[in-house]
Amino acid sequence: MNLILLHPDEVKNNRTVLTDARAKHIRKVLKAAPGKSLRVGVVNGPLGHGVVERIDSEDVELVCSFEKSLPARPKVDLLLAMPRPKVLKRLWAQFAALGVGKIVLLRAGKVERCYFDSHVIEPDFYVNLLLEGLQQARCTHLPEVQIEPLFKPYIEDRFANDFSEHWKLLADPSGKKRIRDFQCPDGAQRTVLAVGPEGGWTDYELEMLRGKGFALLGMGDRILRTDTAVVGLLSLLHEWAE
């Protein structure tokens, strides 16, 4: 835990009292004593420092000071064909740690309908994993999550509103261009990366997505699992943007 992440309603008059796993981490891992300064941040808010004012076996009280400016929101969004639930479980924290602003989980043709009945897409499950990723990466921006169980209605009716100012990249083994071959178009404020299921996008889905302005992006001849492809592509995109 590289950042003690606080919810806005936990901070009153620049003070907070923690009694949960964060307090345990401060006591057991950081071995903090009164006067110790710790990195803190507010979910979707500023970064700052919290000085330990009181610590005991039950709770930890911090006096906080925060930066005036907010950290930049990640400029990469993700349109992801719903992976197997056990794969998605591994990915939630990575989405936040690597820096994704918005995640749209979409049902593609080669995605089992039952995946959308899984508890891993319930906010009570995934929010804690997203927070874990933010604390690892020292970031405060909680990714927005949107569930879309029908491909065609979403792409036809709502996709344009969600990603109107985006540069659009479509990951597929048929893509001949690598990320280094692209230049972000003028006027694009953000990037949306579309990653298909392990069985691949169907020809119909590729046609629809390309009709919405997506450019094909390849990573070579190797066929990758969803979690490997997502982590690799997000890392490449952020490195390229820098």
Q: Let me know the number of strands.
A: 11
- Unreliable spans: none
Strand order of the largest sheet: 8-7-6-10-9-11
- Please name the fourth-level CATH homologous superfamily of the largest domain: SPOUT methyltransferase, trefoil knot domain
Architecture per CATH nomenclature, i.e. the level-2 architecture of the largest domain: 3-Layer(aba) Sandwich
Distance between the termini: 25 Å
What is the string of SSEs from the N terminus onward?
EEHEEEEHEHEHEEHEH
Radius of gyration: 20 Å
Can you tell me the number of structural domains? 2
Q: What is the CATH third-level topology name of the largest domain?
A: Alpha/beta knot
Principal-axis shape: elongated
Question: Count of helices?
Answer: 6
Query: What average pLDDT do the residues reach?
Result: 91
Largest sheet: 6 strands, parallel
Beta-strand content bin:
15-25%
Derived structural class: alpha/beta
